[in-house]
């Protein structure tokens, strides 16, 4: 049966005043549909389950609306500060699927490219963890599948026959037509500190390495340096596909011929970046979107040849405990794939997990060291010490693998900012001795 074709406002009417709605992370957000829901004021008990909103949606601020969020971004932080009913559901990206299954939202919704001649809609920039729940909702007569399609989105590729990022049109209940510009993420301009960190990180990437590069100025700077350098034959196995990874491809540095797993293609589960990236991804068979349950599985990650994971952090203590998503009791982001890639990249001796961070941060006008003796009370650990591999600041790298508690602490003190180094050395000297 063909779907009902609606405007965003018409589609908003299919949601009951008491209802549950599920959606995927970031580029899976159905922008026009979520915006249209803000045109209603009759909500009695509406609950959303999703992650990383890329827009500010008035519906989320309604007093009878609750948003159960798996990953915070700027929109969640700002709306929460303004009084919205937003609560974090802790879980890594791989756990999003079982969390959604338990939540069992009556309405599932997603953003996609327009229907193709093959009778499917292409999930474009996000496959992630929602595919199975989208299909279950579409096939259940008591649930609804609402798909927002936008002609400005690319049609991306997957890795058949084992995986697909398309949904049969005949299981879609409501098709929302929209034509807004896709959300873009400008690349942050790097500074001298970012460049220094990237220069250190680059030394851990050998020719033929398989790369996972996260979001931010430092990972993009690493990609730029690799693109300009003499090395090559890199493979890509990355949760998120970025402009930096596109740049590596365009420089001819990516061959994907030595990964040992998924040879011939770059593997990802979602993409976020500039409009140039989206145009480049359209129909590009060199990039395969695969479910996050595969991409972020540490046992799968570890099968890649010479794997190097490059991610950021907010703080690290002398034990090597990493804080990456919550600081001073404030939720900044989420677990995502952080721990999965850290764990997967430390299973073999020729692999490296790089945790990159600036040595200091300024809070309330006071400069604080990001490398601390002990995490303060109430800190939320993103990555436990036994998974942490290499920590990088602008002052060097501390490889913690195989070192004792005291040796790890001493190595971390040496890459702290000089203003804090002596105090940290003193603490490091006695750590693990009592």
Shape: globular
Number of helices: 14
Total beta strand runs: 27
The helicity comes to 25-40%
Strand content: 15-25%
Structural class assignment: alpha/beta
Query: Strands of the biggest beta sheet: in what spatial order?
Result: 1-10-8-6-2-3-4-5
N-to-C CA distance: 70 Å
Quaternary structure classification: single chain
CA gyration radius, whole angstroms:
22 Å
Major beta sheet, specifics?
8 strands, parallel
Low-confidence stretches: none
Q: Averaged pLDDT, please?
A: 94
In short:
With 434 residues, this protein is of the alpha/beta class. 26% of the residues lie in helices and 23% in strands.
Describe the structure in your own words.
- The protein is an alpha/beta fold.
- It is 26% helix and 23% strand.
- It is built from 14 helices and 27 strands.
- The protein has an eight-stranded parallel beta sheet with strand order 1-10-8-6-2-3-4-5. The chain has a six-stranded mixed beta sheet with strand order 12-11-17-22-26-27, with helices on both faces.
- The radius of gyration is 22 Å and the shape is globular.
Annotate the secondary structure layout.
Elements: E1 4-6, H1 8-12, E2 18-23, H2 31-37, E3 45-50, E4 65-69, H3 74-81, E5 85-88, H4 96-103, E6 107-112, E7 120-122, H5 131-139, E8 144-149, E9 166-168, E10 174-177, H6 192-202, E11 210-213, H7 217-228, E12 235-236, E13 240-241, H8 243-250, E14 266-268, E15 270-271, H9 275-281, E16 287-289, H10 292-295, H11 298-301, E17 307-312, E18 315-317, E19 322-323, E20 326-327, E21 330-331, H12 338-344, E22 352-356, E23 360-363, E24 366-369, E25 371-372, E26 390-393, E27 396-399, H13 405-414, H14 418-430
Parallel strand pairs: 1-10, 2-3, 2-6, 3-4, 4-5, 6-8, 8-10, 11-12, 11-17, 13-15, 14-16, 17-22, 18-25, 22-26
Antiparallel strand pairs: 7-9, 18-19, 20-21, 23-24, 26-27
